[in-house]
Predict the 3D structure of the following.
Amino acid sequence: MSASPVAENAAPAVQPVHFSRPAPALAQAAPRWPRERIAALFALPFADLLHQAQTVHRAHHDPNRVQRSTLLSIKTGGCPEDCGYCPQSARHHTGTEAESMLSLDQVIEAAKAAKAAGATRFCMGAAWRGPKQRDLDPVLGMVREVKALGLEACCTLGMLKGGQAEQLKAAGLDYYNHNLDTAPEAYGGIVSTRDYQDRLDTLARVKDAGLHVCCGGIVGMGESRAERVGLISQLANMDPPPESVPINFLVQVEGTPLHARLHGEAAIDWSEFVRTIAVARITMPESFVRLSAGRQDMDEATQALCFLAGANSMFYGEKLLTTGNPEVERDQRLFDKLGISPM
C-alpha cells in the first residue's frame, strides 16, 4: 500500500450539523468537536491514540462484543447518480447490470439466513436516487417481515421526500443509512448529481421521524487527512451524533472514476484507517462504529487493531451490495482468536 498522507494544517472549523431547524440566533454555540481538536487526535502517537480510544470504548461498551449486520441489495444497478466510487451507477461501465427489485420471498429467505449466521440487524439497500412511492410500498412490506423475524431492520434507499421516513418508521424500521461520504469541501469532487445539503435534508427527515441514524463515510478516496478530519467533524457534531457510524475503506471497482483516478492503488495506509476508527470512537463514544466495506482486503491484524481502536459493529456475510466481504467462517475464526462474542 502507499504511505499515509502527511497531516495537513487543520482547516477552519465547520459549523455542526443540526437535524432540527431552529429559529435563527444571533450567535451559534461552538461545535463540541472543532476540527483543530480532531486533527490533534489524528496526530497523536499511534499507541497513545489507541489507548485513548480503548479507554473511551470500555467506558461505554463491552470491548469483547461486536454487533453483526448483514446487507442485502434488494435493487441492484441502474442508479442515475454519478458517485465516483459506486459500481451501481448507470453512468459507469463496471459490468453491473440493472436488475429488478427482489421479491418479498427472496428477501425473507436472505433475512432468515442472516439471522441463522448470527446477524442481529438486516440492512436492505436499493440503487435509487430516491424511492418513488411505487418503489417504497414493497419495501415497507419487507421491513415488516424482517421485523417479524426478530431482527433489527435498516434501509438505505437514497434521498427521502417528505413523509417517506414516517412511512418507514410506521412499518417498523429501526435505522436509516445515509452516508455523508466525505468532508463537505471534498464532496463535489466525488459526486456532482447532488450536493451536501441534499444529504443533510434526508438526515433531518430521518431524525424528525424518530428513526435511528446510520451515517458515516468512505476513506481511501484520495482525500487528505484534513478532509478525513472534516468528515469526522461533521459526524461528531451532529445533534445527537449518529447512533451507527459505518467507516468504509474504498473498494476500487474497475470502471468507476475513482479507480481510474487512483490507478487501483490504495490511497491510504492501514494505519491511517485504524486512526480514523479510533478518532471516530473518541468523538462519538456512544455510537456503534462499524467496519463496513473493504474488509475483504484487510488482513486479520488490521481488523484486530480496528476492534482495539473501538469498532464494535461490522457487516457480516459474503457480499456487501455488489462487492465482496469476508466469509462467515473466516470472520468466526478471527473472533475465536480475539475472544470476541456477538451482541
Remarks:
- Residues 1-28 have pLDDT under 50 and may be disordered.
- The CA atoms of residues 111 and 122 lie 7 Å apart.
- The longest helix spans residues 133-148.
- DSSP finds twelve helices and twelve strands in the chain.
